[in-house]
Amino acid sequence: MNYFIKILRFGIPYKRFAFLNILFNMLYALFSALAYVAMIPMMQILFGTTKKTYSPPLYQGVSEIKSFIEGFFNYKVTQYLEKDNGMALLFVIGMIISLFFLKNIFNYLAMFFITFLRNGVLKDIRNSLYKKTTSLPLDFFSEKKKGDLMARISSDVLELQHSFLSVLELLVRDPLTIIFSLVVMFSFSVKLTLFVLIFIPLSGIIISQIGKSLKRKSARVQTEQGEFLSILEETLGGIKIIKAFNAQESFIKKFAKSTQRFFNFSNKLLNRQNLASPISEFLGILVISVLLWYGGRMVLVDQTLNGAIFLSYLGLAYNILTPAKGISKAFYNIKKGDAAAQRVLDILEAKDDMEDHKDAQNLARLNKEIKFEKVSFSYKNNNVLENFSLQIKKGQTVALIGPSGSGKTTVANLINRFYDIKEGQLTLDDIPINKIKKSDLYALTGMVTQDSILFNDNVINNIALGNSEATIDEIKKAAEVANAAEFIEKLENGYETVIGEGGNKLSGGQKQRLSIARAILKNPDILILDEATSALDTASEKLVQNALENLMKNRTSLVIAHRLSTIKKADLIVVLNQGKIIEVGTHKELLKGESTYKKLVELQTF
Questions:
Q1: What is the pTM of this model?
Q2: Which of 75, 371, 379, 430 is such that its CA lies 20 to 30 A from the CA of 592?
């Protein structure tokens, strides 16, 4: 139930719709009871038991409202009976139709306004999930599968609509319908109503027992759905490798095992769910049957109840059973939706250890240096950097080289603050990196990686990703500096061309130059090049290398590279091995003697 309350807080911005829903539900419940009361005069006419009243009643206050309304009806019916029995019957039927019409109009209006609340809550939950997902640190995503996250944002939120949010329609309407109906029923017969009230809670208890294990079963279904979505995401991302290694059967079997588990869990869940409706219907018929026996005796044997009133009473009793079943179903849905709500709230309430410090400072420009002081870092139990110290002065180009796993990319990730350091200190202009506002830090840095990360959008929006206010002339200028303008203009729609998912309509060199144009347009103080040319052929590398040199001019740059052409012009080359700095110097300095750098150059293995 706690999860239900937490989800309901998303409804606060839509409280006006909730108030309107409550108002029209109250009117619905009132007219629902009155509609069955209005049937009494009709049946009295049919049975010839109408109490004739020849003068209009006097209103004597709220406490006598029942007698006043009853007297008024009898007075109007008497007037029509004096003229024609058929007219009296038409009058009563017209009243019944009017009451049922108003009841259904109010029901529609209540559902009309609750729709805005339900869909608004769903929209805000999805937006909050997406916003939270983009703000969480990378550590979080290393623990979660992409498919599972997708399942939480899509199917789990949809489950909330079918479970929790469907309950909103019942929170006011059904309890009020029961209350108004019971008030009228008590006015007819206290003894008979108390008899009915014994059976309704019993049926509710039986229904609630069915839902006890639903949360656990529903959690299994939703977890398994996240599992096969993860397999699907991996398959689509690696389809080339799967085909190249003829591994289709292996992945098909893996996916089939997951869907089989989903099939089994879903069957158990739905079979338990399907029990609720027939059992509740049977219990309802049982209550009506007992009521017919007990109330029938009051009419035929004891003669303490009028037959017309008893028939109307049966209608009111049925009017209670339907919302009572709805409340039981609502309780069941809350149980079922608990698992989905918990999975959604796991994301929304995930702790972000990298939020801005309360004393976070602004840093609009890098004025002096980036400084690592005895920094140690590890992923889980895997040490990556150990006692790492390095000074990168403003405007300097520093290259990091070394074998795979030596910690090069980790250094870049720490400057971007994708992760927080555990030991030592990293400062920008003598300000600890965790004391700089993240928005300022991200504005300071630009990045070009080995895998050109582009989006399924046009060329303009891909280049302008880091500078949404850039003009088309500025975008074209950035493309020219990146040696990308020529191929862009040859595309089908030029700068308006949609480049496909991940830029798959472009070659490797074209994608990389587009990434460089994006970095140029952002104009960052700190530039990070993470093996930006390692995946390119010689012809493409030359074009990209020229673009990179244009990009690095008058900029603080950190270069991670496997190719000599990329790093030999660096102001400082840092050689890493197993997270430690083993050599530092310029290209010429490091080539002297029998240095590790010289061996790497000769072998081109960095």
A1: 0.71
A2: 371
